[in-house]
Each structure stands twice: as structure tokens, then as C-alpha cells.
Queue: 2 jobs
Job 1
Amino acid sequence: MTGLADLQIRSVTHRFGSTTALSQVDATIRGGTITGLIGRNGAGKTTLARLIAAWQPLQSGSIHLDGHPVWESQDRTSRVCLMKDTGGFLEDQPVRKSLRVHRAARPHWDHDYAMRLLDLFEVPTKKSPEKLSTGKRSALRAAVALATRAEVTILDEVYLGMDAVTRRMFYDELMADYIARPRTVILSSHLLDEVEDLMEEVVVLDRGRVMAAGDTDEVRQQYSSGSSLASLTDVLVQITTSGAER
Amino acid sequence: MNHRGDQLPSFDDRSPIYLQIAEHLRRSILAGDLAEEDQVMSTTAYATTYRINPATAAKAMSLLVDEELLHKRRGLGMFVSSGAQAKLRERGRAEFVDAVLRPVVDQGHALGLSTDELCRAMKEIS
Amino acid sequence: MSAMSTDRRTTAPQWRVATTLLATEGLRAMVSATAVMVAVALLFYAVARSLGWEFVEARSDVMLGVVADQRSVVVVVASGWLPVAVSTAAIIVAIVLTASRTRMFVSAGFTRRAIMSGTAVTLVLLVAYALVVGAIVTLVLGPSATAGYLGAEGAQVSSLVANGVSGLAFGVVGAVAVTVLFLRFVWWVGVLVLATLSLLLTVTGAAGALDAVSSSAFPWVLWALTALLACAYWAMMRRLPVR
């Protein structure tokens, strides 16, 4: 619809030693949508995010953007941005230095936008990330993730350190930018109540497997009983507890 | 640009938001708050006002387009179609008789009231 | 929608961007280090001279030493100390750049190939910088100043350069490879590898064997080892995971 490429994840299995982090994961992240990636701790969300962004080589399966693997393809790695709650910055150097790297690396980087966001979130660019408070560190990561204007932007719990007010400011900025300049956003968050209305589609992981995927309203309806619509938390509880009973 | 009918509703979590938006729009059209050829609030406006995905509002619009209540004008937005209120009234009436009136009549009969007595009672309360 | 067009052939190739970022950072660090070293040396010289200390040029393997008795203090300095210090700085800069920026660059969207290319060019520039400093010192002070501890026979410029460059190249590439070893694997793997290597070298007498190698072959042995280390670097980098 927006002309943005889909992200095709096919049969991805990933093991760390004896632990299976992902098992035969199949998913299509439609281009230009905000897709939620939800699951309990250890469900494999971060592993999947890192594989999509080519931070880790695939062991089996494939992840294609625009028909080609992301891995080691400069055309694609530059278009996929993963921002987690740690990493992504030169910790002991002023923020400005890290910004220089992002500016050079990201083809759609908007420096004015970055500066405006950092100003909005009150993140000093002369300080180094390690000297910032937890809240400011999260805000820094969120701001930079938005400013990359990367075609596929994956936000993996970047708002963990933010207080409620900052989070709302962030959601508003995210939605405003998404509306003005559509991109594919993959949102991974534990704060489901806050983000469930922002997600058009959702992928639910449990113990490395895709348990549900598709339109958020439809998934919620699927797990609804009675008169009320199930929240994503309800969905997750049902999915994970029924799994435990198996 | 006419945006009447925008006394903003709040959405609860009992049903999908897009259905609630659609329902609110239908009610506004029925009540006459949104007249024919009035522009409906844009999906962007819905998204920023309610902090929801614009696709959610788009789904609601799309539903109403299918019901021939709204139509899209390229580059401008969504507008109330002509005859929308009439359509809703007609549908509403049919539904009202089936879903609301029939149970009332049945209950009245169950309480021993005849149809005439029911009509008299209705006249008294109107 | 136009801002999200997937057609961006106008962007510069990543290896060039990575090179610019790494090289500017690396050379900036080298210039700072050089400036600091020279400034400290000048300060030391000024203070020492004001205390009446004497300075003597070192002849053999000594880089810096102090001989003191009741009457006088004599500072023995190898007049080629600066190229050696700059070379050491180059190795440290190479380590710090690799350690701090490799994973960060991957997370910023650079391919590992681009980072490897950028690193390679930067290392060449670091070695070239040290070479230039060495050239300047040699021009100013004469070849004998730098000859001694480079193990060169006589004062032939060519053998100085060969030994110096091969030695430094081996140093920076080895340092970077070891750094990536620690990035790639759990820390104790790196420690294990280093411990094993040093054990092997001393036990088999390989370190001693290096001394016995004729001075004309010495640079080639180092280049061969450098190439080996570069291969190891490439092998570890190509599938480097980032957490």
C-alpha cells in the first residue's frame, strides 16, 4: 500500500548452545505497518530482532527484505535499524560523536529532526551516554531510532528507562512521524496496554514459536470470550498458559 | 471544511476500536450531526487524537464505505454520502422492529397485555 | 512517500564511509598522541636541563635510562625514541578503534565487509603515519639514531624501513586480530589463545628462532605472519555477532 517492501521471515530456527531460541519462525512483516512483536521474557523477540537486523548470522531459514537477504547487503543493512535499550552508541564518547556515525551510515538520516528530538527529550549531546541517567539514555536511543528514518525500524524495549510522561511524548512523536513519513516499524514492548492500540498487526511469540500473527484486532477477537475484547495481555496470558499445560 | 459531529467520543476496551469509531459515525449521521457531503474527521486526526494507529480509523471508514454511508474524494478525505441518513434510518427501523420492538411485544404478551393495551400504553407515554 | 523511496543509488559505498570515519578518528588520535609525547618530552628536557642533568645519546638497545651518582645525573635517550613511541601509539589506537567501534558500526547498519575494509585502510594510514614520523626523525638525526633497536645491520635506509614497517604492520594487525578475538568469543577464549600462543612460542623456542633468522629474511617472516593474522581477522569478522 505504501510501496514499502515486506520483510519475509521463513523457517528461522536459532539455537544458543543447547537452548532453542527460535523454532521454525515464519512471519511476514508487511511494509509500512506498525507491527508489534510480543511475548514473555525469553520468548525469542530479541533474538528475532537481532536476526532481522543482521546483528547475528542466521543458522537456518531466511530473512529477506525486498526479495534479498539482509545479511551483509549494504543496501539492506543500512535500511534496517534495530535500537535496543543498550548498545548502539560509543559509551564513553560524547553523544555527538555517535551521531556522526549514524549520520554517515543511515541514508535517510534527518539531522535536524534528531536535534529537535534530543532537545525535546532534553538529552545533552555533549555528554557521553554512560554519564546520562537511565531515562535520558532511553530517550537518546528512541530519538536516534526515529531520526534514522530507517525503512525498517525495530524498537526493542527502548522505552524501558523512560518515565510515563516521556513515553507518551515518544509515542506521539513516533505516530506523528509514522503518519507523515510511513516506515515499517516493529515494536517490541512489555508495556502492552500502552502500545496495543498503536499496532496494526502483531506477532506473538512463545518459547521461540509463532503462536499468533496478523491483524491486531483479529488476533484479539480470536482470544476473546464473552462480551469484552481481549487485550494483548489477555492474549499473551492465554497463549502462554495454555502452552504450559501441554 | 465542515467537521460537525466532533463532540469527541471516548473508546473503551470492550470492542475493537474501529467498530466503535464506525458506530459513533453512524450515530452522528443518523442524528444529523453529520450531514450529507460533510467531511468526516481524517484518519490522521483520529490517530493523533486517540493515540491509535491510523489504519484502525481507516478500517472504520472502509466499513462505512462498504455500507455506502461514506465515500472518498481523492486528495480531500472521507465525506458523508448522499442518502446516508435515509439508509441508516431504513436499516435502523428494520432492526428496531426486529431487535427491540418484537421482544417488547413478546414481553407485553407474556405479562398478559393485549396488543391494543400495548398501543394505548405507548400513546400515553409518547 | 518519496522520502522512503527504496531507490538510493546515490549513497556512497559503505566501505568509503567507514574508512573516513575510522581513519579520521585514528589519525586524530595519532596527532594528539604525538603532540602530547613531544610536549611532555620538551617539558622533561627543559626541567631536566634546568636541574643540571645531562643528556647522552644511547648506543644500543636502551631507549631511556638514567645514570645517577653523587655528582651528576645523566639521562640516556635513544634519539629514535619518538618513532618507537609513535608506533606503540599506533598499536594502541588500532586496538581502541577496533574495540570501541566494530560492534557499534554493525549496529549502525554497516556491513562487516565495509568495516573490515575501513579498518584495513586505517591500519595502512596508521603505519604510514609512523613511517612519516620515522622518516622525519631519521632525516633530522641521521640513520644511526633509529638503526640500533630495529635490528638493522648497518645504517641502510632500506633495511630500516623494511624492518620498521613489517614490524609495525605485524604489530597493528596482530593487535586488531587479538581485539576481535575478544569481541568474537567469550573472554576466556581470547585469554586461552594468547596463553597457548605465548606458551608455544617459548617452549618450542620459536621466539628464539626468530632472532636467528637472517636480517634480510626477517621482514618477510613478519609479513607472512601479518598475512596469517589478517586471515584470522577476516575469518572472525565475517560472521561477528553483535549483542
Job 2
Amino acid sequence: MSASVTGRAARGPSRLQMREWLDGYLYAAPFILGFLFWIAYPMGYSIWLVLHDWDLLTPQRFVGLRNLERMIDDPSVPLALANTAFFALVGVPLHLAFAFLLAMALNVPLRGRSAFRTAFYLPAITPLVASAVLWSRIFHPEFGILNEFIGLFGVPAQKWLFQPELAKPALILMGFWSVGPQMVIFLAGLQNVSPTLLEAASIDGAGPLQRFRHITLAVMSPVILFNLIVGVIGSFQIFAVVLIMTDGGPQNATLMAVLYIYRNAFQFFKMGYAAALAWLLFLIIVAFTALQFWISRRWVYYEEAR
Amino acid sequence: MAAQARAASRATATHGPRVDTVLRAAAWYILVSALTVSFLIPTLWLVSSSFKASTEIFVHPIKWIPDRLLWENYVEAFRVQPLGRFALNTAIVVLFAVMGTALASAAVAFSFARLRWPGRDLFFSLLLASMMLPEVVTLVPKFILFKQLGWVGTFLPLTVPFWFGGTPFFVFLLRQFYRGLPYELDEAARIDGAGSFRILTQILIPLSKPALTTVVIFSILANYNDFLHPLIYLNRQENWTLAVGIRAFNDSYVARWELIFAAATSMLAPMAVLFFAAQRYFVQGIQLTGMGGR
């Protein structure tokens, strides 16, 4: 009797185990199917698209690597990529530095800081379209409040979104307004900075700057890396704000990668070319992310014993 | 003399830090309050301008408080554009997308966290990989897929994918949460004859309410906010969502700032209510997701 039970266990899964396997597949089915439908199949299909010209109306035409050649010859491609990279390389670090400073300011044990935290977070809940509509008025050369504000300090009125050199900085300026979520993440991370450690360093003669650099920044470095990677991936995909506020202008100063992909796909109906551009952007995002992880080995500090 | 000086310096030494602390606290309050004001000004300007007469908007210096609260701006905004219809469409899309996200994420997370089956680790690494996958790479092929299915122009592309584990990030979040709950609960229930369905619905889901609420709130925000997908999939005005509708409003009534601002304020209001009603979950959720990256 017992021999046959162990024998069966050795031969294959028991009925109970089979039941668990079945349940496992059943409950994971939404993801498995979703992965096949919305990720695996579209990605494969999009490789096929790259090799074809298609306007969704006439039959597809095989063109080989022609779409890749077009990408090399297209002057809008480096322009859109440079504009997008400007946001990732200049905008994201500035926003994170600001979010970090806010978090440091709110990490002081003084009364009312949770009310301040709410106030700093609040703008981030503004729907993207609403804030694009609002900020395009804030930047308005004649009736916007930004010009009125800088006028108080004697700075002459600017054309902001209508001036090629100022359009990107203006959009980055707008981004400072919605750093609330990053601030909250930093604030949570700051709770891991042990006061005893700071005190010990202070007794050992470390000044405030040294303590900040060698303790606070070191402990926070994984959180900074997380915010940086999420922020850079997000900034590479900026779309709604530029479509609504500038439509890529003035003089293509805010022509962003996703906006250019959108135009090719849904305004020029060049499906193959749009797919090729999307792959290019995807590979750049992957390369950037990998690069950040690689560089992070030099500056991110993980506490051992965890 | 020397003793006196020492005593005096000791006095200032014990006194000094207190004055210093008070000064520092004062400086902190001034700085942080100034920042708070500058953070709130854009929203205040938006809301106050939505009640202004158009003549009050275009004056220098800024008029912060309108002479009379013109609720008519809202009536007018909802009249010249079918904002009520857009709001209803948004509510339908958000409802079905969020329901799908919550149910699918809970089920999939349960499978990854509490059941053992061959291939689980492989699929879990696929889940992690798809968390990092930028949306844009599947944008065009997915559009063609939905076009071939005849779904373009309906709410289906905006809702159905969420019923199929459409948001890997939330699956990951719930899976981490389930793993923190004691396994003895499942074992005891199984001994009592409960199946997976009962364990999930009667034990794990009730225990993971905070995490599930976070998923629901963040998913409401994401779908309410979404602009790109409604823009490409909803091609007739009568099924536009607020995000797409207000953008079109903005383009066609460029000079009527008070109407645009009333529309934008109407779009912001439900999110503000949600935020104040569930503030705890916002903060908690960000912390949970922030930790998720490590």
C-alpha cells in the first residue's frame, strides 16, 4: 500500500499537485494571454511592419530595409531624439534634485509638515490635459501670470512657448510643478537614514556637507537610481503635453520622439516607418537604462546585511 | 574675571542654540510657506479665472478674486461642448478598465505568490520584463490589431486589455503584498477543504485591502488621465473622453479662457475629491511602488 503511494509520487505529480498546477495556470491565465495578445504578438508583428510600407488602405508592400534607410536620411529623426534627450538629461536631473531638496526640507521635525507635503503633492494630481491647458496660459506672452511674476523682479516679458530657445526650458520649468510623487518617494527613503549614524559621524568631526555626501546620499542612492530610471523612461515618452501646448513647435524645438511617431502613424499613415521609429526609440531607452544600471555600480550603495 | 567670562560664555552656549533653533525654525517656515504659495498659485489662478468675466482675465495686474462668481461659465462650457457626455464616457472607460485591472491583478498575483506550477518563474520574469517595456513600441501594431478586430471607435481597446493582466506593475505590487501574508492561512483553509477561489476571495483579498485600494486609485488616475490611447482609438466626438474632449475644446475656443478654465477645473475636481478622500492611500501607494523598484 505505502509502497504504491511512494511509487506514484516518484512517477509523477500527485492529484493534489496537479490541482495546484491547474489552478496556477488558471489564475495566471489573464497575464499569460495578455502577454501573448498585447506584448508578444504586437512586438513580432511590428518587426514584420518595419519591412513593409502600409497606409492601412492599399495592400502592404515589402520594402526590405528601406524604412531603416529612410530613418538615416530623415533630418527630423536626430532632431526629435535630441529634443527628447534634452528632457531626459537636463529636465529629469533638475526635477529630481528639486524633489530631493523638498523632501529634505520636509524631513525636519517641525509642526505642519504633513500639510506642506499635501500642498507640494497636490499639483501632481492635476490631469495632464488640464495642466497642459493651464500652463499654456501661464506661459502666454501677454496675459500669462509667469511674465507678470518675473516682471516683479524687473525681468522683461518673454515669449516662452513661442520662442524656440525658451520652449524646452519652459516645459522643464512646468515639470517642477509636478514633482510631488518623487518627493514622497524620497521622503520615504529618508526615513532609512539613521539619526544615530549622522550623530556618530558628527562626533567623529564630519561637517554637514560631509555627512550629507557620505551618509544621506549614500543611503539614498538606490532610491535616487529608482527615480532616475523611472523618470528617464517617462521623459523619453513625453507626448500629451507637447501635442497640446506646442504641437512640436516653435520651429520644431519641441518635436519629441513619440510625437513624431504619432504623426507618422496616425497623420501620414506610414505604419512601417512609424514601427521602425518606435523600435529605434525602444532600443535607445533600453540602452539608456542599461547604461544607468552600469554606471550605478560606481555610485549606488547597497547596505549589506539586508 | 576669567570665571565670569567663562560663566557668561557658558550662559550664551546654553542660550545660543535655542535662539538658533528658533531662528532656524522661522527661516524654515518662511521658505516652505513661500514654496507652498508658489505651488498653489497655478491652481488658484485656474479656479479663480474659471469664475471670471473674460474682461477680468485679460487685465494687468492680475485680478485674483472675481467681482462676482460667474457660474454661468460652467453652464456655458457644458453647453458649447458636450462635456457631460465626455464625462460619462470617461466614467464608463475608467470603471471597466479599473474593474479589469483589479480583478486580473489580484488573480495573477495570487497565482505568482501562492501557487506552485511549472513555468512560474519564467512567466514571472516575463512580467518583470514587461514592466520595463515602454508603451510606445507596441503602439502601432496594437492599433492595427484592434483595427482588424473592428474595435477602433469603441471603448474596447481602452478597457479589454486590462482584463488580461494589462498592468504588470500592479500584479507585481500585489504579489509582493501577498507574499508578506502568512502561508499558514492558506494551508489551514486547504485542510478545511477550501479551494483556491475561496482562499483568494475570502482570505487574501480581505487582508490586502490597503494594497488593492492603492491599485484601484492609481489605476483610476492612469485611465482618467490617459490621452494618447483615447486620441487614437476614439474617432467620433460622441465617444470622446474628457482628456480628448478638453483638448479639442482648447483648440476650437482658443480665446475663451474662462470657458477652457471652467472645463479644466471640471476635469480636475473629481481627482481633487478622490485625493482628499483617500490621501492616505496616495502616499502609501507611492511608497509601496517606490519600494517596488528595489
